[in-house]
Automatic annotation (TrEMBL):
This is Tat (Twin-arginine translocation) pathway signal sequence. SMART domains: PQQ. InterPro entries: PQQ_b-propeller_rpt, PQQ_rpt_dom, Quinoprotein_ADH-like_sf, TAT_signal, TAT_signal_bac_arc, WD40/YVTN_repeat-like_dom_sf. Pfam families: PQQ_2. NCBIfam families: TAT_signal_seq. PANTHER family: CELL SURFACE PROTEIN (PTHR34512), OUTER MEMBRANE PROTEIN ASSEMBLY FACTOR BAMB (PTHR34512:SF30). The lineage of its organism: Archaea, Methanobacteriati, Methanobacteriota, Stenosarchaea group, Halobacteria. It comes from the Archaea. Residues 76-175, 286-424 form the Pyrrolo-quinoline quinone repeat domain.
Amino acid sequence: MQEDNQPDGHQNSRRTFLKTVGITVGAAGLETTTVAAKDDDSSTDKATNWITARSNPRRTGAVSGTGPTPYTATNWKMDLDGSMHSKEPVVKDGTVYLAVTTNNGSADSDGYIGAYDTETGEQQWKQSDLPTPKTPTIGEQMLYFSTQVSETNEENRGGLYAIDSESGDIVWSRTDSLKWTSPIAIDQRIYTSNVDGAYALDSMTGETIWKTDDIGMLTDGSDGALSYANGTVFFSDGTALDAARGRVQWRVTDADSAFGNHVVANGRVYYLRTKYIEDDDDVIRVEARSVNSGRIDWAYDIGTSNVMERRFAVANGYVLFYEPGSDNTITALNAKTGAHVWTKELVGDYFSNLTIANKTVYLGGRYMDPANPGTVRAAIHALDITTGERKWSQLLDESDLETSSEGLLAAGTPAVGDGKIYATTYPAGSVFDYHYLQYSNFFVLESSNSVPDGERTIAAQSD
């Protein structure tokens, strides 16, 4: 491990230091106070907004606030002028932030982050001088995000960025590495990793506080590859680091396995462990390990299949996941014991990651009406977390928005905040890459007392 604590000094000397390690700093970035991360992360337990990939630093996919009740209706919608495929909206204090891809060519990438009023949809600001941004993390004063980088272009402007949450101005960027995992913001620190190892950075300047070599890295290149709870940072290579100094607390070693897709809750780290077997299907199981020691508390075998990319959701005493190899079958386990609780097969396909709020499971997907062949609608569904039974389904109305002539519309992962649901749509399964940039839209759903559009049609098919 290398500790890289930098002393305070004159602003000119600090600016010189930051440039030498590839940090670009705006005026606001020269004021900093570096403190150790607190052990008390009660704010992550009580989060009512969706502030990072998978909602919170534990990556549970859950919020303690409520979603729309008892049903939903469209509050507002808009054309994204780009794509948010595989990315999530983030929400805090009446503002929703969207990370949009506008160009994903082999030679370069571009995008923007926009801030919008959750009630009216009014744009507050838009920062478009960016490479393609991943799902951002909301800190106290800034948004932090890594970028998607083309494998074939070494001149890409990729890196790790911080922008002011009030104005959208770029405050600092780390370009000494082009690829970083999606960060977590705790107190005045940012936790992330790149090809060299794991990092804690000063949130105001991007300056390295500590670095631990060969830990974390880019094992899981998707959003949410690291998580945080009670002063410990967990990585998808099966490692737990002390957040204060970057020292290894425990590490699971198995060259033939991957410990991906992890969530921290209930004093445990829940991994989807994939055991690679030569000339055979991979063996997959859910493992619940102690956050203090890495010891296995329980494991649940879920068969053989290809690696599943979609993430867990954990809340209210349940661990929820899609069955490997299945696009539409969800299983719920008891989070304490690993015992099977229920399995539910859904009507439709292209289902999103799972979201939990007020004991309700929300997910996006695509629905094809059997009574009207060729009619495809993006849909948001709500399930009862205790039984898996469907509460309602909302078909999204894309009239007045630009959509693909292929149809194929599906809704992405719903985010919940301020009592609303935020979800994007995309042309699921389209063979044309540019369709994802041209035909993706954004919806905000609010509470309604009326039965949602399409509910009776879906109920007749599935119940």
